Amino acid sequence: MSAKKSTKTKKPGLLISFEGSEGSGKTTQIELLAPRLKKLGREVIVTREPGGSPLGEEIRHLLIRANGSEEMFPETELLLFAASRAQLVRQVLVPNLREGRIVLCDRFLDSTTVYQGAGRTLSPDPVNQINQFAVGDVLPDLTIVLDVPAEVSVQRVQNRASDLPDRIERENIDFYRIVREGYLLLAKSMPHRFHVVDGTKPPSVTEKEVWKAVKRLIADAGNA
Ligand code: TMP
User: Fold this and answer.
1) What is the SS3 assignment for 106?
2) Which of 87, 106, 115, 169 has the most ligand 1 atoms within 8 A of CB, as the residue to mutate?
3) 18-61, pLDDT tens digit by residue?
4) Measuring from atom 18 of ligand 1, which residue has the nearest CA?
5) How far apart are CA 67 and CA 73, in angstroms?
6) What is the mean pLDDT of residues 122-127?
7) Which 8-state DSSP code applies to residue 11?
8) 88: which DSSP letter?
9) Pocket (CB within 6 angstroms of ligand 1)
10) How far, in Å, CA of 79 to CA of 69, rounded?
């Protein structure tokens, strides 16, 4: 993105997004990656979507935890995710990338393409336009997709001891299948940005795969 070219002396900021269906292990992989990058002497910011800013976290609550009697329409859902993203981009991503930091984002615009586009069957044109409006010219330098079969997602959500499933996690297995296929199709259409990693392996094995892709990105960006 343009923000990372702001000075000649600084290492460029990099935006790495993590995507995948529920229980794919994104959050664990981000927690493993951040210290590795810090060991390289890089400043790292970890954030998430929806959320990542105070306003975004309020929107997250509306989107995920709201259990009201009122139905949330797919169009409303799309716009709320986009609103959280628009805030995150301007408040968190752009300033940190400008400072040369590496931002690890737990979900970004591809979640909308897959969940609201493929999952909720909203037409691709408005989804893409709204995504673009929200992010401006801020696109991930690398997107890691943690790929797990729908059955594994459902099982992992059920096994989570901490919480009751949220509004989206309560979807049926077919929705999870559509989400998985959506990610694989998207990754195929943009191989330069996406890297698909098997999310069914133990986290320590998956981590090595993720690290290979990130090291390559850093080397390609000329700031190893
Ligand atoms: P998380 O639990 O991985 O943080 O994600 C929150 C939920 O929100 C997850 O079920 C996926 C969903 N989601 C969308 O449907 N569209 C989006 O654009 C984003 C960012 C998340």
Assistant:
1) strand
2) 115
3) 999 999 999 999 999 999 999 999 999 999 999 999 999 999 99
4) 112
5) 14
6) 97
7) P
8) H
9) 22, 48-50, 64, 81, 106-107, 111-112, 115-116, 168-169
10) 20
